[in-house]
Amino acid sequence: MMAAREVMQKDLTLRKGWCPSAHRPMQTGDGLLLRVRPRAGSLSLDQLISIADIAERHGSGEIDLTNRANLQVRGLSAETYPEAIAALIASGIVEADADAEAARNVVVDPLTGLDPSHIDVRNLASALEAMLIARSDLHALPNKFGFSVSGSARGIRTAPYADISIAAQNQETYSIKLDGNAETHIELKPPAVVSAVARLAEVFLALTAENPELRRMRDAVAAFGATHIFTKANLASTLAYATSNFETSAPSVGILSHAATPYAVAIGLPFGRITDTAFKNLASQARELGCRDCRLSQQRTLVFPLTTRADADALLSAASYLNLITQAEDPRLMMHVCPGAPSCANATTSTRIDAERLAQALRNYVEGMPSIHISGCEKGCAHRNATAYTFVARNGAYDLIVNGTTQSAPHIASISPTSLSSTFQAITDRRS
Ligand code: SF4
Description:
The protein contains twelve helices and 21 strands. By secondary structure, it is α+β, with helices and mostly antiparallel strands. The chain folds into four domains: 4-94, Alpha-Beta Plaits (2-Layer Sandwich); 106-240, 2-Layer Sandwich (Sulfite Reductase Hemoprotein, domain 1); 254-326, Sulfite Reductase Hemoprotein,Domain 2 (Sulfite Reductase Hemoprotein, domain 2), CATH 3.90.480; 332-431, Sulfite Reductase Hemoprotein, domain 1 (2-Layer Sandwich), CATH 3.30.413.10. The protein has a six-stranded mixed β-sheet with strand order 6-7-8-9-10-11. Strands 1-2-5-4-14 form a five-stranded antiparallel β-sheet. Strands 3-15-16-13-12 form a five-stranded antiparallel β-sheet. A hairpin with a 5-residue loop joins strand 4 and strand 5 (71-76). Helix 2 runs antiparallel to helix 3, helix 2 (45-58) packs antiparallel against helix 9 (276-288) and helix 5 (122-134) packs across helix 6. The longest helix has 18 residues, at 193-210. The structure holds iron/sulfur cluster. Iron/sulfur cluster (SF4) is lined by residues 338-340, 344, 346-347, 375-377, 379-381.
């Protein structure tokens, strides 16, 4: 009979390439990676410190903040993973049931309840997560099927896109839209929102039962139309056709204020990564300043509620000392960088080291900083869309693509990793 650890090792090997979760870790170049989701978009500072402890004790100490506003603990092994998941469950961060944990795939507006111009949707987000956990029939939704909840009428930018997006238009009216149709949406009173979302998820599952090729809501919308799906969910009477803009800007970094009154501090993680030591240090400093929780944003920033300028300045100065992003002019904010080598077995360059070197050279860039993508291979995990300058690694060197994606034709081939800044400088000088 195979020992439990051997069974787990075999299972983990089979899971290579899965969309990871806390219960379904993914094998990467630097060991197993597990993903932790905040609850209703936030984690307590005690939970942040627990996650950093787990990363230190059971992983490599590196923690990612993803573009789904999830945290990833890296560098675990088949030996250390069981203790890590047990600690996450014990601290209330992760559901004990794997399917329930996977189901609560909800991205929440990081400024809700903080920015006075946003409606407070935290209770609604919690109710939505509770419904997704409790409704075991909805656990059959695809692994990546996701939801977003915003306190702003403009919604939140969700990349990759949420299948079902909810946005508060005002205290009395909430909109729900389906991915794949920006114009058609429904408008409901707040108490009706969660049950409407459940019905839409049921309709999606019924459609996929008859049409197995449908993988996400946008496929169902393309095949049947949003109006058909809302009608099947008995929501036709709430349909609205006016264009509703669900795009919004990212929370910036630094002190966030409304009418000159601070309400939070946003701190960026360079290329979405932080060490356990820096994470603990930052969370401890925030706790000393009276902060109790932290919001995670899809723009890879940590948002700490703080309401005095003195406290905000104190946390920013601690973050700056830790080499985190505290100023909107920091070039690292405009750079999309995948884990690269050695974290990813597909990478042929150390993308983060190369990106940090390029960012240093761009600190005094006087023009508006263009978007830059540094990718360890053509897959382009860090950013699917076009950027002004995309560097794609091939055989240990980079190809440069201008105004394209990792799949576009290169402008210059085989640039040495140490020559990224001089090449960038030369090409931008030529184009200005
Ligand atoms: S883009 Fe390539 S190298 Fe980078 S993380 Fe994705 S698969 Fe790995």
